[in-house]
Design goal:
The radius of gyration is 15 Å and the shape is globular. Helix content is 77%, strand content 0%. The longest helix has 23 residues. By secondary structure, the chain is mostly helical.
Length: 111
């Protein structure tokens, strides 16, 4: 789970600093709700789902919360690390913030 947060943060920051044109295209896709954005969101939710299922199978994550609710909640905590506008507003402490949020989410998933 920590790797997902860190990857989102680092890739988002790299895109912002190294490929501004692509960053602007992605911003437009968020603002205009392009179809590829929905596919990206669903793929990310599926990754989260797989991590949660595996963690539950191993007894590392709690089972009280429904799988769908946990997936959506975790997805929502990740948005500030890939949404281009939120990302742009949080660049100063992006990596530390991603680690802090990941740690909080993991503690909340403990059985």
């Amino acid at each position: 789970m920590r790797k997902i947060y860190k990857s989102l943060a680092l890739n988002g920051a790299q895109l912002f600093f190294k490929d501004r044109k692509m960053h602007d295209i992605i911003t437009a896709s968020f603002e205009e709700h392009w179809g590829n954005l929905e596919a990206y969101n669903q793929a990310l939710i599926e990754i989260i789902r797989r991590v949660l299922v595996r963690g539950r199978e191993l007894g590392e994550f709690e089972r009280k919360t429904s799988l769908e609710e946990a997936c959506r909640a975790i997805y929502n905590t990740m948005q500030s690390f890939f949404h281009p506008i939120l990302l742009e507003q949080n660049l100063d402490h992006l990596e530390e913030d991603a680690t802090a949020v990941a740690n909080l989410v993991l503690r909340s998933l403990a059985p």
